[in-house]
User: What shape does this take?
Amino acid sequence: MSHKRNIEGLRRFKEEKTKEIESKIDKAIRELSLNGKTINFLSVANLSGVTKATLYRKPNIRKRIEDLRQREIENRVKIEKTDKSKDLIIFAKDKKIKELKYEKRQLKDEIQKLKSIIYQETV
Assistant: This one.
């Protein structure tokens, strides 16, 4: 007599456990994102209470974390470039302002000299 194993209960338990773990991971990612914290495997694992191995083992979660991490890196680079660009623009403007002030001073002096020449000629 062959005995047929009933593993349906085990399958349902595994599915429920998988959904629960994915829910914890999703919640952790959303929380990190909303709080502006760094999203990487360690931070997600710590906040969700699952192991890093679990995160790496699930392809959809792994890709999501890698994509979010890459996006954060790109945003940081953009911010750094923007700050450096701002500094460079401010420096260039300051330099131009100094040059214009110097030119203005020279033109005022020249106008004063011309006024004195005109005055001397009329007297």
In short: Residues 28 and 48 are 5 Å apart (CA to CA).
